[in-house]
Amino acid sequence: MDAEIIAIGSELLLGVTIDTNSAYIARQLAAAGVNVYRKTVVGDNTERITAAIREALGRADLVICTGGLGPTLDDVTREAVAAAFDRPLEFHQALLDQIAARFAAMNRPMSESNRRQAYVPAGARIIPNPRGTAPAFLIEDERGTVIVLPGVPSEMRYLFETEVIPYLRNERGITTVILVRTLHAVGLGESVIGERIADLMQQANPTVGISAKRARYELRIGARAESHAEAEALITQTEAIIRERLGPYLLGEEELPVVVAQLLRQRKLTLALYEGMIQAPVLQALLAAPDIAAQLRGVEIHPLDRPADEQAASDLAAAGASAVADRWQSDLGLGVQPATFPNEQGFTAVAFALITPTGERRLTRPFDLRSSEGREFAGTAALDLLRRYLAEESE
User: Fold this and answer.
1) CA–CA separation, 349 vs 335, rounded Å?
2) Residue 364 phi/psi, 5° resolution?
């Protein structure tokens, strides 16, 4: 079965509301073994919603819509679905009674506009909504199935789990399983990683994809099989190949800050941090790791108060790392210091220094510190320098 998702609501197009519903539905469909090939976001316009549904039915067996089932005049999903199926809307007194009972239970008066919610396309199967006033419904013809759910996330999730999944399993015979495992890599560029696993990214099952974020890379392995165990085996085989090809650049299922915190705990080492940037990207990244406070003895944030070229920045990073390690009696000191001025391309040299019981390690790389993303890249480079040392020492 192939599926498409249509998220309905002008607020989604205006950026006022983030569409979390589609992400949830996509995850749930994948777990149920249903391919999701496309997601569409459309505003509260009857003609455009109708067109989106008809187009989706031309490509997919299953279309799931969320939103636009409220009582106001801009809630036009019911009308659009009816038009897409060339059917009239029908009034259901039982639905209105349910809506009225819900308002009575809340000791609130029901508005006349709520009567609109008692209409569904002719022939549709009504899905009662005990969590809200917007009834959902399911409608089928020879093109496929459209399931229409409320846009309120809590209501949508409840109905998806209690009604949609049983429908797919019991009535549509969906028995396959899709599992997804996400691995994290760092220290190689996206293009290099892509070249090393290019053949895996071309295969049909399991599928392999890559995405970049803050100089860290997510590798997603998705496998389809008739059972959880079979899908797990397919993923494990592919993961073994990726581990062989990426070697120490592959972190595993945990992200970089978590891996660093785990290695510090395993080796029973403490860390002090010196950052020459007021934004403190290394500290911000480390705070994403749970229980890091036990390993992080102290932090000094000290932006430059005098000009420094690349060599001076490197010396300052090392001096700062050594000073904080002494001050807080930590096993390791990590220093980060950008030079004063960017080059003609806008990139600034950032120096990193790691002070260890046996010596020091230095690294200097250029980053565009004018953007938050560039500073996050610098934070990743610093943590990866620390990770490499900890990984070597734990072997």
Assistant:
1) 14
2) -130, 130
Omega before residue 307 within 30° of 0, cis: no
Q: Looking at residue 190, what is its pLDDT?
A: 84
The structure's pTM equals: 0.69
158-to-25, 161, 165, 310 alpha-carbon distances in Å:
11, 5, 11, 57
pLDDT at 317: 95
pLDDT of residue 393: 62
Rounded to whole angstroms, how far apart are CA atoms 117 and 136?
9
Tokens of 121: 């396309």
Phi, psi values for residue 234, rounded to 5°? -60, -45
CA–CA gap between residue 354 and residue 359 (Å, rounded): 8
Are 335 and 363 in contact, with CB atoms under 8 Å apart? no
Identify the segments of the chain with pLDDT beneath 50.
none
Torsion angle of alpha carbons 48, 53, 54, 59, nearest 10°?
130
d(CA 298, CA 286) in angstroms, rounded, equals 12
Q: Express each pLDDT in 107-138 by its tens digit.
A: 888 889 899 999 999 999 999 888 888 889 99
Domains of the chain (ranges; CATH) run 2-171 (3.40.980.10), 177-252 (3.30.70.2860), 256-394 (3.90.950.20)
Tens of pLDDT along 163-204?
999 999 889 888 777 888 999 999 888 889 999 999 999 988
